[in-house]
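B., you asked whether I could sanity-check this one before it goes into the benchmark set. Here's the sequence:
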Amino acid sequence: SAQSSSCKVIMPAIKYLETNYQNPNLTNAELAKQCRISEVYFRRIFTSCYNMTPRQFLIDIRINKAKQLLSEGALKINAVAIKCGFSNQYHFCRVFKEKTGLTPTEYVKQNRIYKI
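And here's what the prediction gave me:
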């Protein structure tokens, strides 16, 4: 279908997002360039394929990586924020709470994987 072939066009951007999510300055322009299409076209295809904007998709990746790091418990919250591409700890905490309903600290308490 036309839908699935246009979704293939943005695969380079998805791969790029998955390896560059730590970069706090990641832009749609950069992602569109990976796919060799215009930024406007990129946003349109992305949104129709994933039912969310590239930005929302990126935040989901970052929050999932953050959950993983928080449950491993080796890093402080500010280190997790930076490693996951958030510009600062406050922004990270706000977005994390918005997405999960918990602060990073509460999440750690509930999901800590204890090493025996």
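One thing to flag: The radius of gyration is 16 Å. Otherwise nothing jumped out at me.
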